[in-house]
Amino acid sequence: xxxxxxxxxxxxxxxxxxxxxxxxxxxxxxxxxxxxxxxxxxxxxxxxxxxxxxxxxxxxxxxxxxxxxxxxxxxxxxxxxxxxxxxxxxxxxxxxxxxxxxxxxxxxxxxxxxxxxxxxxxxxxxxxxxxxxxxxxxxxxxxxxxxxxxxxxxxxxxxxxxxxxxxxxxxxxxxxxxxxxxxxxxxxxxxxxxxxxxxxxxxxxxxxxxxxxxxxxxxxxxxxx
Length: 225
Description:
alpha/beta
């Protein structure tokens, strides 16, 4: 998982209506949070393929959060996009898009699915999950990436006379097996170091709240947006 605009050594980033990307290189998928003005040019400046954009998360309908949305959608239409796009936003965004298409006399060549934001798990794909809570009318997000297992060593497996099969998958996940002769086979000895997961919190308040304290102390990055 790759984050744009985030310094890996920065734990708290303060900026009003921040816009950032989550890039999943393994599946060539990109998720966008907020769509500020000129978002399509940001893709070009960062050498990112705009057609890999699959999800847009809009926490509110403030002009700074959606000022670049119609332009971005039109750009996708101009480059001939055909695969669908998923937008997670308050229900009122539908009316904004309908009015935008009406007055610009534009129809998109691809399907746009609008998912209404609600409390709970909203996205669960590719080992990444996004949860949302509603805090006095503001949606806040918790982005969690699961720990990824290390690379399984086929050479080590062959050295231990292990035949290919479902056993490989178990060993890669770190399981331990006791063989009939009493020999213990440890999965971690056959895999490289696992990639630690991470958690990002996107909050709208600078004030302390007890219900978030336990989550925040384990978060790698906290965004006050």
